[in-house]
Amino acid sequence: MGAEVTSLDSHQPAPPSDGTVTSLDSHQPAPPSINQVTSLDSHQPAPPALDLDGK
Question: For 4, what's the count of Cα atoms within 13 Å in the CB-facing half-sphere?
């Protein structure tokens, strides 16, 4: 049975899938998302939230 799994793996190798993910990542890189979070954090800093919690 091990041989059967190997032949299936041979028909659908992993590398092609990785390549697809890479191109998607290239269109939507992570850095921009981090910047958005930073700006939101800047608009709503943590200290005020702590004050509400203190009340």
Answer: 1
Q: Is 55 helix (H, G, I), strand (E, B) or coil?
A: coil
Q: So what's the pLDDT on residue 5?
A: 56
Q: How far is CA 46 from CA 1, 9, 14, 35, 52, in A?
A: 57, 49, 43, 17, 10
Q: pLDDT tens digit string along 10-36?
A: 555 555 554 555 555 555 555 555 555
Nearest-angstrom CA–CA distance, 41 and 35: 10
Q: Measure the N-to-C terminal CA separation of the chain; round to a whole number of Å.
A: 65
